[in-house]
Structures are given as structure tokens and as C-alpha cells.
Amino acid sequence: MKKLKVAFVCVHNSCRSQMAEALGKLLASDVFESYSAGTELRPQINQDAVRIIKDLHGIDMNETQKSKLLNDIPEVDIVVTMGCNVNCPYLPCSHREDWGLDDPSGKSDDEFIKTAKIIEAKVIDLKNRILNGELV
Q1: Model's pTM, two decimal places?
Q2: Are 106 and 3 spatial neighbours (Cβ–Cβ below 8 Å)?
Q3: What number of H helices and E strands is found in the chain?
Q4: Residue 136 lies in a domain
Q5: Exposure string for 92-114, b = 16+ CB within 10 A, e = fewer
Q6: Interior/surface letters 15-53, b for 16+ CB within 10 angstroms, e for the rest
Q7: Residues 93/133, Cβ–Cβ less than 8 Å
Q8: What is the annotated signal peptide range for this record (predicted)?
Q9: Is 94 among the domain residues?
Q10: pLDDT per position in the chain (136 positions), as tens?
């Protein structure tokens, strides 16, 4: 089975989409390639997100990821928007879904942990749906 390419997309590509990229690489790299991108760059990934993902999963996103624009990633099969509450960025794809996640930026560690755990469950669900032939 050809590995699908999945883009996790939000406006700033600094928090939720970065966590999704890291967790996709950790939990589903055998099924899909994970990318993240946005329509605006940030000088660095949200450091609270970096810390929480490192605490929960031992991944240092500062070492492996950076904020990217939509045209910085390859063509993808699946686009997952994080829940932009504005006009979500558009990328051509064969399947698109929105995870409707609130941005935890500026909130407590508990909110970041809650968001990371939701993303983790959704990444595993996405992997299983791909394996079951439900997508693309």
C-alpha cells in the first residue's frame, strides 16, 4: 500500500498543527507521511506545545520541525484542518476534514495536555480509517 501524505493545517502553523505532525510521525508513520503548514509563518513553534509534547512523548519539536507555509510541503492526499474559527487555508486533496480543536495558546498546561491527547486519539483514528480503506 502506497503511503498517503497528510497535511495538518492551521493559520499560524505553530501549535495544534505542529503537535499533529509530531504525533502523526510518532504514531502513524507506517501508514502515512505527516506534514504541517499554514498561511502565516511564526518565528518559532509555540514553546508550550513543544514542552508538552516533549513531556508526554519525548519528542523535541524544536529539533525536528519548524513553521512552514502551504507551498513548503509536497502535494498531499488528505488535509486535516485544526479548527481555524476563520477561513481555514485551502490545499487540493482527495479527502479533507476539520478536527474543530480550540487553540490552547496562552492557556494552561492542562489545556495543552487535553489538546495533545485529543490530537493523539484523532491521529490513531485517522490511521485506522486509512488502514480500513475508508479514506481516499
Answers
A1: 0.95
A2: no
A3: 4, 4
A4: no
A5: ebebbeebebebbeeeeeebbeb
A6: bbbbbbbbbbbebbeebbbbbbbbbeeeeebbebbbebb
A7: no
A8: none
A9: yes
A10: 689 999 999 888 999 999 999 999 999 999 999 999 998 888 999 999 999 999 999 999 999 999 999 999 999 999 999 986 656 667 889 999 999 999 999 999 999 999 999 999 999 999 999 999 998 6
The partner residues of 43 in beta bridges, in order of sequence, read none
Q: CATH no. for residue 61?
A: 3.40.50.2300
How many structural domains compose the chain?
1
What are the cell numbers at 55?
513531556
Query: What are 95's three cell numbers?
Result: 479527502
Domain range for 104: 4-131
**Is 101 within a domain?**
yes
Q: How far apart are CA 15 and CA 23, in angstroms?
A: 12
Handedness of CA 89, 93, 99, 104 (dihedral sign): negative
> How many whole angstroms separate alpha carbon 97 and alpha carbon 85?
14
Give the burial class of 78: count Cβ atoms within 10 A of its Cβ; 0-12 exposed, 13-18 middle, 19 or more buried: buried
C-alpha cell at 59: 519528542
